[in-house]
Amino acid sequence: SGGLRATFEARGYTAWDPTSPAFIKDEVLCIPTAFISYTGEALDKKTPLLRSQVALANQAKRVLALFGKKATSVITTVGPEQEYFLVKEEDFQKRPDLVLTGRTLFGCAPAKGQELEEHYFGAIRPTVNAFMKEVDDELWKLGVPAKTKHNEVAPAQHELAPIFEQGSLAIDDNLLAMEKLKLLATHHGLACLQHEKPFDYVNGSGKHNNWSVCADGKNLLEPGANPSENLQFLVFLAALIAAVDKHADLLRVSVSSAGNDHRLGANEAPPAIVSVFLGDELDEVVEGLINDEAVAAHGKTRMDLGVPMLPDVLQDTTDRNRTSPFAFTGNKFEFRMPGSAENLSDANTILNTAVAKELKQFVADVEGAADFECAAAAWVKKTLNDHRRVIFNGNGYSEAWEAEAARRGLPNRKCTPDAMVALKEEKNISLMEEFGVLTKTEMLSRYEVEMEHYSKIINIEARTMLKIASKQLIPAATSYMGEVASTAAAKTAAVEGISTKSEAKLLTALSKYTDEMSDATDALKAVTDKVSALDDETAKAHAFHDEVLPAMDTLRAAADAAEELVDEDYWPLPCYSRMLFYTE
Ligand code: ADP
Ligand code: MG
């Protein structure tokens, strides 16, 4: 409870969430619920999420009223794209690191990774196809609108995307989908990995949060044929840009975890810097507004493919940007930072509340103006101008952007312990309190919970490494050296003066790496014992990041070097190429 309750204080309450349909799973009636403590604090992720949806709906209705529209229902819409890996269950079982931590803590680079992209563009394998079909059937029975299925960039990586729904419902359904993906994989001799980074050397998995706001069935982020003249759209767009700029630190918190730290900023996922991609058309609109220049509507152009049998293709008014953390994709924003293991509630809670705040500000600024349209247009212009620093349409993976973002003053918090501090900052606490989404006490307890959780994850990973190194890898290297040494001795006994050069080379190198493994094991044990004994959760999480993670890296480097040399019949962990490139 992050200090909200003492260990012996156990009373809490659940309240049914009637907006999320109950369902029957394994012959048990399941009812989505909120969970609060005896003292009234939210202990779950659903309660603040629902509160944020109410806040956003209320403010959006006030904005729409100024445009002369009386909306009866305003909802956020969310479509989460779930990425995951599938490996053979027998390999999974032989990997204590995968079983206990969800990711491989050891494993040398495979000869081939994702560079040919033939998995991405290739056929779905029959076993995987059978699995995907069963997942669809089971999810549809539960009312989850599972739809798109495809292979992803990394070998053995796949994706499932549902049809978007009302935000909190989409999140409940995503949690159900994650559960079913894991469970049903076993029916096909597979294990479903949902960790953000199960394998080094190939991409990790994300969960893109496609997000929009919908009033009585109308998407408020639909720009229409001429966005520069669609004032209502521009108000929502400007509010969103301001929200992302002002609360980039909280959005960063919402996607921070020990697992996702391996993705963000590692040239495969958006960087830890939060920025907004608008695309050519909207960028022109924004620049035009800021500089008082007229902007012509684009309209889609036809592309003739030069083949009479093929239809013309309608070209969109803007390209897509796969490196942007927060990208406009035509009529919704795609928040691309969340990791595959994330519960998307935090991200949406923050997004909804931050946007509610800007919409409220809009109403306060223009309400009662003599000329509403004039005042609204001026507000849009000023807001866009104030927050244009967060707009970035270029390559988010480049080093140049990191430097440019620093010049623009955008935060770049690279690891979870650095990011979490935003939960304690006054600006953020007052945002959450203003809309009744989270109290200061709830925010501070969440900070404690997150920091403690981070430390626990790294502690488990470090101790799993120690066990694997001591009980499996060092013994494997030692036995193999024994065999090579006996072979060399036997050769020499059989043929006087025979060369034992290859055995000597191998023994010398392997002995060196085994010594390094042994030393690194001692060092990792010492530092993990020291850090896990710390009392203060802040100091502990930082120490796990600063001291334990590097010690884990050193041990892995020695073990991976040994793996390159040891006969694979001796090496107890299935290697990367075996796990990533199975054929059925
Ligand atoms: P891509 O991989 O090209 O980004 P996908 O089809 O995999 O596209 O995923 C897009 C997701 O966005 C789907 O879940 C889709 O239902 C969702 N989506 C579409 N329109 C909206 C909207 N207005 N609000 C929220 N989500 C949306
Ligand atoms: Mg997709």
Describe the structure.
The chain has 584 residues and is α+β, with helices and mostly antiparallel strands. It is 49% helix and 13% strand. It has 18 helices and 16 strands. The chain has helices at residues 46-66, 89-93, 96-101, 118-121, 126-141, 167-185, 231-246, 248-254, 280-290, 345-366, 372-387, 399-408, 416-420, 426-434, 440-494, 501-532, 537-565, 576-580; strands at residues 12-16, 23-25, 28-30, 33-37, 74-88, 146-151, 157-162, 165-166, 190-193, 207-215, 218-219, 276-277, 301-303, 313-315, 326-328, 333-335. The strands form four sheets. Strands 5, 6, 7, 8, 9, 10, 11, 12, 15 and 16 form a ten-stranded mixed sheet that branches. Strands 1-4 form a two-stranded antiparallel ribbon. The longest helix has 55 residues, at 440-494. The chain is globular. It binds adenosine-5'-diphosphate and magnesium ion (MG). Adenosine-5'-diphosphate binds next to β5, β7 and β10.
